[in-house]
Amino acid sequence: MNRQWVKLIALLALTLFSSTGYTEETYLQINGLSVHSKPGNNGFNPGLGLERAISENWNIAGGWYYNSDYRGSAYAYARYSYYRKDGWDLGIGAG
Q1: What distance in Å separates the CA atoms of residue 71 and residue 64, rounded to the nearest whole number?
Q2: Quick one: which of 53, 62, 78, 81 has the most CB atoms within 10 Å?
Q3: What is the pTM of this model?
Q4: β-strand 26-33 against 88-94: which pairing, if any?
């Protein structure tokens, strides 16, 4: 099995099955397209990821997609939301 797939499966399993005691929501992330200012970059970027709420203000995510340089890329990040209202979410993330 390809090493990237093994990393992706491990990352998604950790994201989805983390035991934090807070399981409000899990989101499926579907990656697809990007727009570039210079020609030659890949605009079709398929991939999948998961994002999970681990507390009222914290979310974690991970996944894989085919990037703009025509290569596979894994990603992971954490996001803290300090303002939420009417479906809008303002915060900061790093990954």
Answers
A1: 10
A2: 62
A3: 0.66
A4: unpaired
